[in-house]
Specification:
mainly alpha, two-stranded antiparallel sheet, 2 strands, globular
């Protein structure tokens, strides 16, 4: 028993050291930083001094309309992006897993390739495709009588969602496809013998058997959505873009830190965003756990 404990300690120690260095310490430093602010002494001619302000930075962040509106943007983004991502990735995975699918490896690679492109490069590509004076896509749409401003207040959110879908659809499709491939083929054969058609097998047999993967992808997608930063930051540079420098909470923290040099406010905004992500993650995990427990009791 002691030998097993010693072996487990040796194997787990590198992980906990790395976890402490890259997670615990930065989070602790952010919390500590959020409790202080820098103020100029005298009439502004003296140097700055770091002053303990307690929860003042949190009050300032929550009282700032721009910060609160950023959460509204995130809510709209999640309501639009998450259902499209889950439905699109699962639909593509079901198509690849069907008996009618051809050239599966080619389509897996083709759909996954956009994820290999760095987010900032992908955003730059799409900004080019959104710019009316440059984009062949916009010119083709206008030639067809379709007018849409991707940088307008109405078009900014769908534009960001489109970029994110292009980046992450193939990645999550691979996860769902792997889960579908793990299904016991005898279950599918039994459903076919019972007279179930392709649609019935897909949605009444396959989808319920990959619910664990659906819950996992939904959880990671929620966490990732709350960290929305790169795409709107690049889109903010577009001509006449409605995306402001405080469009999302992450952009608000970035602006507070590097444009206004208010690191205490930036840290407080980051901590509030991290708490929101933790609470949502806990809620999703608890909800899926209850559903699983309820089904086990029923069975």
């Amino acid at each position: 028993m002691k030998a097993r404990t010693r072996a487990a300690t040796i194997l787990l120690t590198p992980f906990f050291l790395l976890f402490t260095a890259v997670m615990v310490v930065p989070i602790g430093y952010a919390v500590w930083l959020s409790l202080f602010t820098e103020k100029q002494s005298g009439l502004g001619f003296g140097g700055t001094e770091t002053v303990f302000t307690g929860l003042d930075n949190y009050t300032a962040a929550l009282g700032d309309r721009a910060f609160r509106e950023g959460f509204g943007v995130l809510l709209g983004y999640c309501l639009l992006y998450i259902p499209l991502l889950l439905a699109g990735a699962l639909g593509l995975a079901l198509l690849l897993d069907s008996a009618l699918a051809r050239a599966r490896r080619f389509f897996q690679l083709a759909l996954f390739l956009p994820h290999a492109v760095p987010g900032i490069i992908a955003a730059l590509i799409w900004v080019y495709l959104y710019t009316p004076q440059l984009s062949p896509v916009v010119q083709a749409m206008e030639a067809g009588g379709i007018g849409f401003d991707f940088f307008s207040p109405e078009g900014a959110l769908p534009s960001v969602v489109n970029i994110a879908l292009w980046e992450w659809l193939g990645y999550n499709m691979v996860i769902f496809y792997a889960a579908l491939q793990a299904i016991d083929r005898s279950v599918l054969e039994a459903a076919t013998v019972d007279g179930a058609g392709a649609w019935r097998i897909a949605f009444s047999v396959k989808v319920p058997l990959v619910k664990a993967s659906l819950a996992m992808v939904a959880l990671f997608t929620i966490i990732g959505s709350l960290q929305l930063f790169t795409e709107p930051l690049i889109l903010n540079k577009g001509t006449g873009s409605a995306v402001t420098s405080t469009w999302t909470p992450n952009m608000y923290a970035y602006t507070a830190a590097f444009d206004r040099n208010d690191y205490g406010l930036a840290a407080a905004a980051s901590v509030l965003l991290a708490l929101t992500a933790a609470l949502l993650s806990f809620g999703v995990t608890r909800m899926t756990g209850r559903r699983k427990a309820g089904k086990e009791r029923t069975a």
